[in-house]
Design a protein that fits this description.
Number of helices of chain A: 0
Low-confidence stretches of chain A: none
Structural class of chain A: mainly beta
Number of helices of chain B: 0
Strand content of chain A: over 45%
Helix content of chain B: under 10%
Structural class of chain B: mainly beta
Radius of gyration of chain A: 13 Å
Radius of gyration of chain B: 13 Å
Number of strands of chain B: 11
Mean pLDDT of chain B: 94
Mean pLDDT of chain A: 93
Largest sheet of chain A: 6 strands, mixed
Oligomer: heterodimer
Shape of chain A: globular
């Protein structure tokens, strides 16, 4: 069955430090992959998506993600985190509907 | 920029009451979805809708739930007799096609069942 795993429930980083959020998926065909961000009490904002082509995709707010088929991963990265990046991050795979990971809560220390 | 809207933003109801959550998808989109997120948990798919009928539903979407597109713009989720465990954030989404196309989400309706 299709699934998404985000191994890290909670991550804390210092402002200005680099960030990597992990996402692994299980999907039989070519996956369409997404990262969404949710600030407290807010809706779901698309950060970036992978459909095909270049395996390194750029998104909004300085985020990028790399699709690695051999590792079934789609990890999200940012070279320098800002305090405003503190939020919940969700990885999802599309099977017509979206199948979601549990999310990673990011805290940023000043 | 077009966006998905949802009303109300917050709904409080008594257990056993019926609620209707409303969504206005982006106007040229054809596929519509409802998801829910119980506090502190992951987002879960409820139902997808296309061409005035349900195209897929999850096991969560039992007989207490129904969806409707009553006119050319609204897409509604009805819960017939709410339970405490229906308390959640409900998100509506839409897109032009179900495969290879991102879903655009509304801001959500927080449903609280007392």
């Amino acid at each position: 069955a299709q699934s998404v795993t985000q191994p890290d429930i909670h991550i804390t980083v210092s402002e200005g430090a680099s960030l990597e959020l992990r996402c692994n998926y299980s999907y039989g065909a070519t996956p369409y992959l997404f990262w969404y961000v949710q600030s407290p009490g807010q809706g779901l904002q698309l950060l970036l998506k992978y459909f095909s082509g270049d395996t390194l995709v750029q998104g909004i707010k300085g985020f990028e993600a790399e699709f690695k088929r051999s590792q079934s991963s789609f990890n999200l990265r940012k070279p320098s985190v800002h305090w405003s990046d503190a939020a919940e991050y969700f990885c999802a795979v599309s099977d017509r509907k979206l199948i979601w990971g549990l999310g990673t809560s990011l805290a940023v220390n000043p | 920029e077009p966006e998905v809207t949802q009303t109300p933003s917050h709904q409080v109801t008594q257990m056993g009451q019926e609620v209707i959550l409303r969504c206005v998808p982006i106007s040229n989109h054809l596929y519509f979805y409802w998801y829910r997120q119980i506090l502190g948990q992951k987002v879960e798919f409820l139902v997808s809708f296309y061409n005035n009928e349900i195209s897929e539903k999850s096991e969560i979407f039992d007989d207490q739930f129904s969806v409707e597109r009553p006119d050319g713009s609204n897409f509604t989720l009805k819960i017939r007799s709410t339970k405490l465990e229906d308390s959640a954030m409900y998100f509506c989404a839409s897109n032009q096609r179900p495969v290879g196309n991102e879903q655009f989400f509304g801001p959500g309706t927080r449903l609280t069942v007392l």
